[in-house]
């Protein structure tokens, strides 16, 4: 059976990640409190952010921007602003 966590992003019990995908303290926090569903949402946002801002993972400033945006999205309820992106209405 899948590991269950109380997802801080979705505010509900959900399937947890199979292993820690991000290093360090933030990675541990994600592993313990973020579901697979929320992580998948973040990954879509991350790709759009990297593409829009032409971020390079070699650049420490770019990595820092991405990490702070990720923490804001997953734990603080901040949406990711993507210029010119309009989400599909449900």
From TrEMBL:
Q: Which residues form a coiled coil?
A: none
Q: Name one GO biological process term.
A: cellular response to oxidative stress
A cellular-component GO term for this protein: cytosol
Listed A to Z, the keywords are:
Iron
SUPFAM superfamilies associated with the record: YggX-like
Q: Give GO terms: molecular function aspect only.
A: iron ion binding
* KW Endoplasmic reticulum (keyword) present: no
Record-linked InterPro entries: Fe_traffick_prot_YggX (IPR007457), Fe_traffick_prot_YggX_sf (IPR036766)
Superkingdom of this protein's organism: Bacteria
Keyword flag Iron = yes
In the record, the note on similarity to other proteins reads: Belongs to the Fe(2+)-trafficking protein family.
What is this protein identified as? Probable Fe(2+)-trafficking protein
Organism the protein comes from: Psychrosphaera haliotis
């Amino acid at each position: 059976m899948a590991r269950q966590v109380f997802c801080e992003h979705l505010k509900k019990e959900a399937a947890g990640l199979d292993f820690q995908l991000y290093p360090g303290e933030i990675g541990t926090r994600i592993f313990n409190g973020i579901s697979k569903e929320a992580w998948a949402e973040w990954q879509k946002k991350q790709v759009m952010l990297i593409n829009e801002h032409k971020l390079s993972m070699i650049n420490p400033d770019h990595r820092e921007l991405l990490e702070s945006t990720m923490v804001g999205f997953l734990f603080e309820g901040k949406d990711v602003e993507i210029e010119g992106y309009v989400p599909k209405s449900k």
